[in-house]
Amino acid sequence: MPGAIVISVGDELLAGRVADSNAQWASVLLRQHGFPVVRRVTVSDQEESIASAVTAAFESASVVVVGGGLGPTLDDITRDGLARAFGVALRRDSTIVDELSARSMARGRPITESNLRQADVPDGFSAMPNSIGTAPALLKSDGSRILIAVAGVPAEFRSLLETHLVPRLATLPGRSGVPAVGSVTLCSIPESEIGERLKDLMRRGRDPEIGSYPSSGPVTLVVTSWNRDDSAARRLVDSDIAEIKLRFPAAHLSDAFASPAAALVSAARSKGLKVAVAESLTGGLVTSMIVDVPHASEVLVGGMTTYANASKVACLGIPDEVIRRHGVVSREVALAMAEGVRASLGADLSVSTTGVAGPDAFDDVPVGTVWFGLAWRGGAHAIEVRLSGSRAQIRTLAAARAVDLMRRYVAGVALSGP
User: Fold this and answer.
1) Residues 207 and 226 sit within 8 Å (Cβ to Cβ)
2) What's the number of CA atoms in the CB half-sphere (13 Å) around residue 404?
3) Do 17 and 163 contact (CB within 8 A), yes or no?
4) Do 415 and 231 form a contact (C-beta atoms < 8 A)?
5) Mean pLDDT split into 10-residue runs, the chain, 418 residues
6) Where exactly are the structural domains of the chain?
7) Is the overall model pTM greater than 0.85, yes or no?
């Protein structure tokens, strides 16, 4: 029974309303721990569908991960599907009831029957604590196989698998060789360009193999070697990582999955720098990305969303003549925005965004045109880029690029180019 099967539960997944990022993440995790995923299945919020998928998976795989459907609402019926699959009853776990009751009391809310459904555990399963949510993981093992059902909220899904599944995989029969793995995250460069410049390293059948995992801005490259010689595998991975860094020195963000904002906050904290943001096109996204990072308060002085031209004049002190002469989407306005917010808020470093997100061109400026301004004490720099995608995608990519510009400045790497 080699390998693993991931079962994703949810009508929203089948309807396409939500992307199944959990299954992708689980595939990477399980492969790295010696149980490559051989099948991924998505089923509806129906007891029979869940039971059928679980029965088939548990008969054919060493590891089965079931994600979603463990919440308090009536359509959360994964626990019922598990009970049906194994022909057992549900029992109400008193320990979980006490924990749920305590949480409700702490929030000043009465415990409801809906909440208590999360304390129902199929006979033969163990309930495992959820440190960041209310629904416990449900775990069943017969010594040669293991099945774990976890909440579908991504943060809970990942935490529960890392806490309760990963430690049990090392001693489970059927485990294949554990590969040597490394990763490199690059920022401000399209995945397609990365693939083109690394096509010699990414060809099929090569050891190590390189997979790319794009997000909103950064692209993480995971380098994996299955060489039977552990030391040789490690050398192969390390060699490829070094080569990737050599080819993309300015774009290299970190040696792990990371965000430009986290890297910026860390670097700025270490140097005692304060940053500020002026946004037009991105409408507050740049500031939000930075605030999402713990300890951002030690770095971010503030941000101004100056969407209308009048607010650029009133809040940032940009002469109206500059906007009329050069246009709002221009090098001159981007620089004036950056310097205006830096001076106004007393920051060491600032960034600005102005551009056209669409759906239509503006003043003959094509959709996807974005100007960034970067200002620091004694200098400034402006960069124009052309981004593609929907309005939301352009704004998100622009925000990530703006954060990365500040990250590059603080790290002392090139401000333009990949």
Assistant:
1) yes
2) 29
3) no
4) no
5) 90 92 92 92 97 97 96 92 98 92 83 88 96 93 95 93 94 84 89 93 93 83 90 96 94 82 95 98 97 96 97 96 96 98 98 96 94 96 94 94 95 68
6) 4-169, 180-254, 261-411
7) no
Give CA–CA dist 105/97, Å, rounded.
12
In CATH terms, the fold of domain 4-169 is: Molybdenum Cofactor Biosythetic Enzyme; Chain A (3.40.980)
**pLDDT for the residue numbered 418:** 44
Which residue is it, tokens 């906050």? 265
Which phi and psi angles does 269 have, rounded to 5°? -60, -45
Q: Residue 240 in contact with residue 201, Cβ under 8 Å?
A: yes
Dihedral of alpha carbons 176, 180, 184, 189, sign: negative
**Per the CATH hierarchy, to which homologous superfamily does domain 261-411 belong?**
CinA-like (3.90.950.20)
CA–CA dist 349, 342 (Å, integer): 6
The answer to whether domain 180-254 has CATH 2.60.40.10 is no
Please give the single-letter amino acid code of residue 307.
Y
Amino acid at 235: R
